[in-house]
Amino acid sequence: MTYTIPLIKFVAFLDLLAVGLIMPLIPSHVRQLGASHIYVGILGSVYSGFQLGSGPLIGSLSDLKGCRSILIYTLIVCSGAYLCMAFTTSIAIIILLRAVLGLFKQTQLLTKALVPEYEKNEKKQSAIFGKMAAISGMGITLGPIIGGHIAEDYPENGFYYIAGVVALCFILNAVSVYMLPQTNIKMKKTSEKIHSNQNIFQLIYNNSKESALELSKVDWSQYWEVFVFKALLGFAMGVYYSNYALYLKTQYELSPKHIGYVISFQGIIGAVSSFLMGYINSYYPNDKDFSHRNYHVFLLLSISIFGLCMSSNIMFYTVWLIPMAIGNAVGRLVTLEMILRKSDKEHKGTLIGASNSVASLSGVLSPMAAGLIGQYLGVKFVIYASLCSNVIALILSYKYKTRHIKVD
User: What is the per-residue DSSP string for 260-325?
Assistant: First the structure.
């Protein structure tokens, strides 16, 4: 039906709009509750750590039970977690809720896995992924602005209001997904018959067991190179963004307002680049495995980040942000497409989940690496770690491209 893809795009947008509303406020909120910087760091690590493990699990569950139904369940759980966050002042409970969100918050994974079920044309799928990323990018750009205004207007209870609004957003998304029609894709029959008298713990155990079995059926050896590209890209961008605001403040003495302008500018460039993914793909008619695009992404990123390192003032820095934002936005879509091109229809959710777990692993490691470099070498040297990661990926992507040309 014609409304399915726009509805999936709406779910992806509202998801990141909701995340953008509350995520920038959590660190300052827990600090106001009396938490130290260590606890603030734990909040990020706990979320990323659980995302690391839950990606393949949720992905394989979606292969077994269907993306639509699993997405509805996870949205309801996330809504409950944010609703609890709106009523608690306990730091320990907030950390626990972040763990729950890390385990179940796989909306972007599942919405991407839904697209092939409603659009069979692979060329159109690529354009849809690009538009979804662009629309989601607008959500994550608007969210912090709206959340910041609410928090400023209601300094004492603003966070709790926002948490309640976020919970409503997830419920609205669950209703939206429920409105999607059932697909004709046959789910795999489970090896064990699930009886109607089983309790919830038995169901969770059986589903987890089936998911683990599903993971073992994937030939992971043919995907490791793509996962390496995903990891290097995630680490490079994670390191860069970990000290982004601090870097601009110390190197160019920008105020928070002007830092916000730079961040918004970069977000807009990334969103436009994602939206034009279909147009970008038209320049690569023979690049069936996306190896050429992958190489060009890391070439563009390496050059642009080197330019950022050498920038003597904020004007040059802003100019180099344009190719960097384009490379980052396109690179995330290219690695996703490389995985989907290699995967079979039965394991697409599992592989997208594993891809997200690789990104989550980078999300755990990159802030620690950025912190260590900033502590012992200085904030200005953090960006060089991002450059090194991209150069390594550039060399590997060139070898990958060359090898695939010979095979063809």
Answer: HHHHHHHHHHHHHHHHTHHHHHTT-TT-TTSHHHHHHHHHHHHHHHHHHHH--SHHHHHHHHHHHH
Q: Which residues, 6+ apart, have CB-to-CB distance to 109 below 8 Å?
A: 55, 58, 59, 349, 352, 353, 356
- Which stretches in the chain have pLDDT values below 50? 188-197, 200
Q: Are 18 and 143 in contact (CB under 8 A)?
A: yes
397 contacts: CB under 8 Å, gap ≥ 6? 229, 291, 294, 295, 297, 298
Q: Cα separation of 211 and 64, whole Å?
A: 8
Q: What is the DSSP letter of 70?
A: H
User: For residue 82, what pLDDT is reported?
Assistant: 94
Residue 109 confidence (pLDDT) = 79
DSSP string, 335-390: HHHHHHHHS-GGGHHHHHHHHHHHHHHHHHHHHHHHHHHHHHT-GGGHHHHHHHHH
The per-residue pLDDT for 129 is: 79
Say if CB 165 and CB 78 are below 8 A apart.
Answer: no
Q: Under a CB-based contact definition with an 8 Å cutoff, are residues 25 and 151 in contact?
A: yes
CA distance 106 to 78: 10
pTM across the whole model: 0.65
Give the SS3 label for residue 157. coil
